[in-house]
Amino acid sequence: MNVKRLFGTLLTILGIFGLIYAGFMFINTSGGAYNYKTMSIFGILGLVFFVAGMGLMRTVKDEPA
Q1: Helix H segments across 1-65?
Q2: According to the model, what pLDDT value does residue 33 have?
């Protein structure tokens, strides 16, 4: 397995967990500046990791050995 594809998979999984955690915080918080700040950080980082991981997995071609 290609190292770039493995790294892309890892980034995608981290991005999914970040987005799920941001959604969980959105549903279970009552408000406050700290909660919105934390939720936006996890959401933005999750989105960046997810998009970067999907881009890596899409552009890397498997080469036969």
Answers
A1: 3-28, 33-59
A2: 73
